[in-house]
Design a protein that fits this description.
Elements (H helix, E strand, L loop, with lengths): L1 H38 L7 H8 L4 E4 L3 E5 L4 E4 L6 E7 L2 E7 L5 E8 L2
Parallel strand pairs: 2-6
Antiparallel strand pairs: 1-4, 2-3, 4-5, 5-6
Length: about 120
């Protein structure tokens, strides 16, 4: 009886470990796909194409004071008014922001990375 219980516990533990590893691998794969999609965003892409690729944004707000094209090292200067709306897509360890002009065309993008 005790041996059967130990086998059962070992089996359940093994399933939990495998499930966790599979979930982690799936997350990494999905995150890599999202990174590739973010990198492929081109200037003047339509808002519709961004929504088709990423879905509904988690947050929409007014653009900030700066223009970006990637991460912190891709500062493009002060927002001269061309960036109007900023859509944010959050994920577990960061997110992506995409800025649009008055014609709903991409003028800025930024990848948020959790420290």
């Amino acid at each position: 009886m005790r041996v059967n219980l130990l086998r059962l516990l070992a089996g359940v533990t093994g399933l939990l470990i495998l499930s966790g590893a599979a979930a982690g691998a799936l997350y990494v794969h999905e995150h890599n796909l999202q990174d590739q999609a973010f990198e492929s965003i081109r200037e003047s892409a339509s808002e519709e194409s961004i929504r088709t690729t990423f879905g509904q944004p988690d947050q929409i707000q007014r653009c900030g004071e700066a223009l970006w094209w990637g991460r912190d090292d891709t500062y493009r200067g002060k927002n001269d008014g061309r960036c109007i709306n900023w859509m944010i897509y959050w994920h577990f360890l960061g997110g992506y922001g995409v800025g649009f002009d008055a014609q709903d065309r991409v003028v800025s993008k930024y990848q948020y990375i959790s420290p």
